[in-house]
């Protein structure tokens, strides 16, 4: 039973921490304010190998594992969630489906650039008519000779419309299974394919420096070989990706929760009220102590889920619990941190305001809190 | 090209730093120790030369046991190997003595170029590159904001208060750099994992053929005779603008040599 990081894991964590403080922190507020994708930061994240963390050196990766990715996400999100979600989606949703289910040709063609962060990719699952109910997919793909013809709409798709987006893997109904259920497959659509239109950037409450778009497909044709994984296994494949993704989102949420502690401690030592630093008052001390407690506990939860996953053990429930607890901790910590900052916490130029705005989506994306509770209850036999 | 980069472990300049009360040496025990920031630029420059022209980059550190941590971190950026001179007798050595230890260590290595930071954030003496070059009998190209290697010649742009000077030397040289020269990389996970397996050679004074009584605080050529904490910051000058505010501001800047 060991919950300590190895020397190398600590070194990675420290390296990302320095990067986040020195490269991300000074400029991200401006990107956020203007709703601009931080190309310069993403380029440097690519140069330090963050997008290749869990992939083997044979495909241009760093030879690390999924936990190494989680550590990087936590340290980035401690400073900013937009860049963290860009990395999370780029790796878990963009590159991972190709790495896990793609053909050798697809891997060879796409993974090296994705690992270097020179290109990013997206996964198009959610549709205007449904998120958690992924089986209700309306987008259709019909095989016409050796070409898929895709029609439909996807929404809230991260990383799908940047200048460096290479492709989007979309889920689509490709037929009907025995018993009448839809057969869902995943198909790779390169950026710029005729009939594939990327909508304008959404106006979001948070994650304002990340790229999120609506996508539409009108008679969009791609070669049959662009199928990712097995035909009819698109949904099952995705569920595995989603389970892993929950651990990554938990790590990101822990980062935000810890960032709230960092900012609050700093502010409590500076701000004077009634002749004392506000950190001298127990009202503030206890708030911050509870925040630290939540961040710490949530961290242990995602460490545990990641350890089980890497050991090849079942981890669905642990991932759900980590994601649920970490996201709710992030929301609570962000609210408390804003409260500690008083009026300044309501000003966008203060990092805690950004954290407050960024926290809410954590209870929604990659499975809502309700879905996580459902998964836990199911595991208990209910 | 074989490049040796001098790396010093120093107390983190971002944290509280103190001198020991008895001998006024830096209190390394209580501080969080890091790679001297300027040295990271020297490492980056060495790696860029290696990437462009091939060769080998070796880290050379003189410091206590704890400096291993900084050596590993330096190696995780990409250098091939490291040499760590560690000997209890070295503690408290001044620049003259340290340069002798560095020169002796370089004598055990094959090298074409020595790169180092233009200053360390602890002592800020800035003379090691010059002293070392003198001991090695090679040119000192100091304070570079740009370094160009062209065959056998090394040309730097030396950063000065007024602009820059172009200085050239041929063959072996010691080059010191400022933080304007490049943007150091952050260690990647692959680099971190690879650093574990890179050779670190440990050398003692005996290995270098240096007598213990030539180094260390007791035998230093210079001594810190007194030290006092920096006085608390004074209140600034307030300029009230009664039509002459702009002029007064410019005068202030001129007096402080900002313009």
Automatic annotation (TrEMBL), chain A:
PROSITE patterns per the UniProt record, alphabetical: ACYL_COA_DH_1 (PS00072), ACYL_COA_DH_2 (PS00073)
Domain of life: Bacteria
Cofactor: FAD
Acyl-CoA oxidase/dehydrogenase middle domain mapped to chain residues: 122-220
Pfam families: Acyl-CoA_dh_1 (PF00441), Acyl-CoA_dh_M (PF02770), Acyl-CoA_dh_N (PF02771)
Keyword list, A-Z: FAD, Flavoprotein, Oxidoreductase
Domain spans labelled Acyl-CoA dehydrogenase/oxidase N-terminal: 6-118
Native organism: Actinocatenispora rupis
Protein's UniProt name: Acyl-CoA dehydrogenase
Cross-referenced InterPro entries: Acyl-CoA_DH_CS (IPR006089), Acyl-CoA_Oxase/DH_mid-dom (IPR006091), Acyl-CoA_Oxase/DH_mid-dom_sf (IPR046373), AcylCo_DH-like_C (IPR036250), AcylCo_DH/oxidase_C (IPR009075), AcylCoA_DH/ox_N (IPR013786), AcylCoA_DH/ox_N_sf (IPR037069), AcylCoA_DH/oxidase_NM_dom_sf (IPR009100)
Domain Acyl-CoA dehydrogenase/oxidase C-terminal: 232-380
Family affiliation: Belongs to the acyl-CoA dehydrogenase family.
Gene Ontology molecular function terms on file: acyl-CoA dehydrogenase activity; flavin adenine dinucleotide binding
Automatic annotation (TrEMBL), chain B:
Keyword S-adenosyl-L-methionine: no
Domain Electron transfer flavoprotein alpha/beta-subunit N-terminal: start-end pairs: 23-212
Superkingdom in the source lineage: Bacteria
GO cellular component: cytosol
Keywords: Electron transport, Transport
Pfam families attached to this UniProt entry: ETF
A molecular-function term among this protein's GO annotations: electron transfer activity
InterPro entries assigned: ETF_a/b_N (IPR014730), ETF_b (IPR012255), ETF_beta_N (IPR033948), Rossmann-like_a/b/a_fold (IPR014729)
Cofactor(s) listed in the protein's UniProt record: FAD
Function: The electron transfer flavoprotein serves as a specific electron acceptor for other dehydrogenases. It transfers the electrons to the main respiratory chain via ETF-ubiquinone oxidoreductase (ETF dehydrogenase).
Self-association and partners: Heterodimer of an alpha and a beta subunit.
PANTHER family xrefs: ELECTRON TRANSFER FLAVOPROTEIN BETA-SUBUNIT, ELECTRON TRANSFER FLAVOPROTEIN SUBUNIT BETA
Family (UniProt): Belongs to the ETF beta-subunit/FixA family.
Protein name: Electron transfer flavoprotein subunit beta
Encoding gene (name): fixA
């Amino acid at each position: 039973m060991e919950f300590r990081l190895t020397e190398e894991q600590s070194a990675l964590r420290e390296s990302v921490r320095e990067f986040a403080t020195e490269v991300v922190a000074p400029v991200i507020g401006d990107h956020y304010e203007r709703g601009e994708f931080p190309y310069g930061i993403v380029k440097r994240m690519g140069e330090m190998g963050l997008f290749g963390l869990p992939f083997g050196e044979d495909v241009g990766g760093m030879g690390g594992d999924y936990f190494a990715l989680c550590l990087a996400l936590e340290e980035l999100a401690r400073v900013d969630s937009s860049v963290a979600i860009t990395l999370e989606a780029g790796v878990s949703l963009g590159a991972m489906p190709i790495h896990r289910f793609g053909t050798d040709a697809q891997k060879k063609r796409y993974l090296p650039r994705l690992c270097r962060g020179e290109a990013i990719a997206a996964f198009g699952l959610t549709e205007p008519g449904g998120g958690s109910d992924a089986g209700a997919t309306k987008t259709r793909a019909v095989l016409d000779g050796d070409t898929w013809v895709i029609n439909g709409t996807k929404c809230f798709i991260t990383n799908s419309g940047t200048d460096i987006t290479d492709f989007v893997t979309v889920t689509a109904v490709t037929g009907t299974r025995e018993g009448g259920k839809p057969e869902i497959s995943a198909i790779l659509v390169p950026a710029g394919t005729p009939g594939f239109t990327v909508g304008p950037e959404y106006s979001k409450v948070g994650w304002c420096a990340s790229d999120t778009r609506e996508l539409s497909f009108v008679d969009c044709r791609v070669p049959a070989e662009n199928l990712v994984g097995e035909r009819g296994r698109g949904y099952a494949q995705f569920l595995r990706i989603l389970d892993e993704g929950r651990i990554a989102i938990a790590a990101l949420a822990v980062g935000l929760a810890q960032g709230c502690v960092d900012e609050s401690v700093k502010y409590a030592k500076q701000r004077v009220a009634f002749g004392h630093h506000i950190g001298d008052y127990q009202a503030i001390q206890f708030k911050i102590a509870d925040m630290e407690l939540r961040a710490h506990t949530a961290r242990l939860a995602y460490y545990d889920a990641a350890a089980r996953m890497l050991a090849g053990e079942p981890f669905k429930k642990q991932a759900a619990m980590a994601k649920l607890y970490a996201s709710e901790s992030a929301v609570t910590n962000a609210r408390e941190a804003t409260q500690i900052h008083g009026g300044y916490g309501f000003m966008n130029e203060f990092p805690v305001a950004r954290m407050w705005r960024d926290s809410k989506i954590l209870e929604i994306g990659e499975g809502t809190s309700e879905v996580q509770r459902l998964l836990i209850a199911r595991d208990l036999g209910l | 090209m074989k490049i040796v980069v001098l790396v010093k472990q120093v107390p983190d300049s971002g944290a509280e730093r103190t001198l020991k009360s008895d001998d006024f040496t830096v209190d390394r025990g209580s501080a969080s120790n890091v790679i001297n920031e300027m040295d990271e630029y020297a490492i980056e420059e060495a790696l860029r030369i290696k990437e462009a022209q091939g060769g080998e980059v070796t880290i050379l550190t003189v410091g206590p046991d704890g400096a291993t941590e900084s050596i590993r971190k330096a190696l995780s950026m990409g250098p091939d190997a490291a040499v760590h001179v560690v000997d209890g007798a070295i503690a408290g050595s001044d620049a003259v003595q340290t340069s002798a230890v560095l020169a002796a260590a370089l004598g055990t290595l094959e090298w074409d170029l020595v790169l180092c930071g233009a200053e360390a954030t602890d002592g800020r003496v800035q003379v090691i590159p010059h002293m070392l070059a003198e001991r090695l009998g090679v040119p000192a190209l100091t304070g570079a904001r740009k370094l160009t290697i062209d065959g056998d010649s090394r040309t730097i742009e030396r950063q000065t208060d007024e602009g820059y000077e172009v200085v050239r030397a041929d063959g072996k040289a010691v080059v010191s750099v400022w933080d304007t020269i490049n943007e150091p990389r952050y260690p990647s996970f692959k680099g971190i994992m690879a650093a574990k397996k890179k050779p670190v050679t440990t050398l003692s004074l005996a290995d270098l053929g240096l007598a213990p009584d030539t180094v260390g605080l007791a035998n230093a050529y210079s001594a810190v005779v007194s030290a006092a904490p920096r006085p608390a910051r004074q209140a600034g000058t307030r300029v009230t603008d009664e039509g002459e505010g702009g002029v007064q501001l410019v005068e202030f800047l001129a007096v402080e040599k900002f313009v």
